[in-house]
Design goal:
Blueprint: E1 2-6, H1 10-19, E2 25-29, H2 37-41, E3 50-51, E4 59-60, H3 64-70, H4 73-85, E5 90-93, E6 96-99, H5 104-117, E7 121-123, E8 131-134, E9 137-140, E10 144-146, E11 148-151, H6 164-170, E12 175-181, E13 185-187, H7 193-196, E14 200-209, E15 212-223, E16 227-229, H8 231-245, E17 250-255, H9 262-270, H10 274-281, H11 287-291, H12 297-305, E18 307-314, E19 322-327, E20 344-346, E21 354-355, H13 360-379
Parallel strand pairs: 1-2, 1-11, 2-7, 11-20
Antiparallel strand pairs: 3-6, 4-21, 5-6, 8-9, 9-10, 12-19, 13-16, 13-18, 14-15, 14-17, 15-16, 17-18
Helix pairs in contact: 1-5, 1-13, 4-13, 9-12
The structure holds flavin-adenine dinucleotide.
Flavin-adenine dinucleotide (FAD) binds near residues 42, 163 and 360.
């Protein structure tokens, strides 16, 4: 059997490794001059490939009920064993897994070398623009044919341009609207933005949509000249993307002192001069913003605990780490094979499943690659 995998990212490479047996021939077609280019930039070049706090709750889709059929905690945990069987030794920080070298090349090169060792063909600088089906064969660019096809071309995130969704639409497969996620948020043009630019602080952010609380996250925020960034912001950005797309009002409230209750703050600030006390609990550059036109302690506590920002938009796809949407889960079996097309698999970020920050997206890319790969292996 001849198998073609379009896209040499983590999901495609891992699928190839799991699908290879003695009686099949596998070729990966990659448009770039090397495989795993995006993988190399993950985790700030360190590649956060897994997380000990693995749970289906970290994943999102337009189709939440089908999501629970496609992935479960037990299967996701197997991704850790897959990497450890390849000889990857983890460096674990707060449950986040990186290769011990803290270099994403370790993961990329290990996957690539394994593919080469197993006799998997890799053709680079080959962009797929067209897929058709004739006599039970898939034909790529009117050039190459195969019995089994895997599409693992990734999403809109990071790339300047992507034809991933067009490939699916041309096959009459349903695509849920792609939107950027794990991305910075732009607020209204407040005067204080230029003053707080550069501050990093441990906070709690809470997202309100049309005045209704949706989600809260603790973590480090980065205050910028356009609005807010940081992992806690990234983890609410997907909901913001979806809400803004539907014309809803998105407001983020920042709690600058999450470790203190309002009562504790009141007692603390009343002890001495407020400015002197504020210097002990928040970044000095924030003080004039918090004290702006008021010396009323209740107002000050309100600003410290519920600093309110109206969100105008998210940053673009090229800034985002992941894309919401993609191939509708309705189109897929639990092995990531298309219901409409025998022997056509779609895996990785191209599928309408996205995860939080913390290794969850690479875990899903690997999980879907393993699932589809094993299913292909069994077909030979
Ligand atoms: C800056 C950044 C940091 C990130 N950090 C992390 C992290 O630390 N942990 C984590 O879990 N996730 C992280 N992610 C997300 C993670 O990189 C992706 O979820 C993951 O790479 C998806 O894997 P994939 O194989 O589905 O797609 P991709 O990695 O995008 O691979 C798709 C491949 O297909 C190729 N291709 C596309 N179109 C075609 C075509 N028409 N013909 C031929 N080839 C094609 C592409 O060139 C690419 O090599 C990060 C993302 C970014 C942008």
């Amino acid at each position: 059997m001849k198998i073609i995998i379009i896209g040499g990212g983590p999901s495609g490479l891992i699928c190839a490794l799991n699908a290879k047996n003695n009686s099949n021939e596998i070729t990966i077609l990659e448009k770039e001059q090397e495989v795993g280019k995006k993988l190399l930039v993950t985790g700030s070049g360190k590649c956060n490939y897994y997380n000990d706090n693995m749970s289906i709750d970290k994943y999102h889709s337009y189709n939440e009920s089908k999501l629970k059929e496609l992935i479960n905690d037990k299967d996701l945990v197997k991704v850790k064993d897959f990497y450890s069987n390849l000889g990857i030794i983890p460096y674990i920080k707060n449950g986040y897994y990186y290769p011990i070298t803290k270099d994403s090349k370790t993961i990329r090169n290990t996957l690539l070398n394994e593919c080469i060792n197993k006799g998997i063909n890799i053709i680079t600088n080959y962009k797929v623009d067209n897929i058709s089906k004739k006599n039970n064969k898939y034909i790529i660019n009117n050039d190459i044919s195969c019995d089994i096809l895997v599409i693992s071309t990734g999403s809109n995130s990071y790339y300047k341009e992507s034809n991933s969704y067009d490939l699916l639409r041309k096959l009459n497969l349903k695509v849920e609207k792609p939107l950027p996620s794990l991305v910075q948020l732009e607020t209204k043009k407040y005067n204080f933005l230029s003053k707080w630019q550069g501050i990093r602080s441990e906070v709690k952010v809470s997202l309100f949509e049309n005045n209704q609380h949706l989600k809260s996250e603790l973590g480090e925020i980065q205050l910028t000249k356009y609005g807010i960034s940081g992992i806690c912001v990234f983890n609410i950005s997907g909901l913001v993307s979806k809400g803004l797309d539907k014309g809803k009002e998105e407001v983020v409230k920042i709690d600058f002192v999450p470790s203190m209750s309002e009562e504790e703050l009141y007692n603390f600030l009343s002890k001495e001069d407020i400015k002197v006390q504020l210097e002990k609990i928040i970044n000095i550059k924030l003080i004039p913003i918090i004290l702006d036109n008021t010396n009323n302690i209740k107002d000050i506590i309100n600003r410290l605990k519920y600093f309110s920002l109206e969100i105008e938009k998210t940053k673009s796809f090229s800034n985002s780490q992941v894309t919401i949407g993609g191939l509708s889960l309705e189109e897929l079996t639990n092995q990531f094979e298309c219901i409409k097309y025998n022997n056509l698999y779609v895996i990785g970020e191209l599928v309408d499943i996205d995860g939080d920050c913390g290794g969850y997206n690479l875990t899903f890319a690997a999980h879907s690659g393993i699932k589809a790969g094993k299913s292909i292996y069994d077909k030979n």
